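Below sits the subject:

***
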Amino acid sequence: GGGGGGASPPASACSHGAMEFDELGKHCSQCKTKDFLPFKCKHCSKVFCIKHREQRDHGCTVDITQKNTTPKCPICGKFILLELNEAPDRKMDQHITSGCVLHVWDKKIAKDKARQRKKKETPPCALPGCRNKEGYELVRCKLCHRSFCLTHRHAEDHRCPRLEAKTKRYRPSEAERQRRSQAVQLKAVTQPKGSDKIPQERRFYVEVESKKGGGGTICFDRNWTIGKCVDVACEALGVDNRNNDPTYPKTHLVSKKNGAVFPFDIPIHLLVPALSQGDTVILGPGKS
């Protein structure tokens, strides 16, 4: 009989067509769904469907910031600004949709942001009214446990209350009075460097020898810490002082009698009798 419908295709033709379609597309590495237009992640190189194409959608473990790559817009040629672990595809889509206006990386703006970030991270000097912006790390005072800039790092420079308390409790002994009289005799022989700026009752005379050659009698303030004395001695003898740089060895005052290295944060008058008036010290690196 004659039917109205056309003839059905052979079964072999249907199976052959299905096999051809099976070869098209790939399975999503996340949900295993077959997609005829799969997306390949440029970071982990795996294939995903449209729902899992972005890094955050398929839990990509590759840190894009480690590749040190900044995406470039194919239309305007400008670089796109990315945050940490941010998907570049989404940012690029937003940039192109906005007419190449949003998320543009600008060198000047990046420098300004870095400068502002560094300014926020660097705390100010603890001394009220200090406006130093040297860019160095702050130094912690071992007496009052506050942090100061390089200019005010010594206890006497930031008027440390702990140092003033130690000075008030101090009473000179008879032996020190005798050493003071010896200091007056030393002054009569030679005029020590720095003595004209220090009151007579606070002068402390020490013979300083530099390991690089040279030396002489230097007058310190008895209330100065050893760290301050090192700075003054280096300036007076023309010695390169790089105690602020952690990559260089520290310059110390070392006893010539026994090789003892005097600590930076101790006032000089509290070291008596280990360091007395007229003693000779070596200006140079201490023993490791």
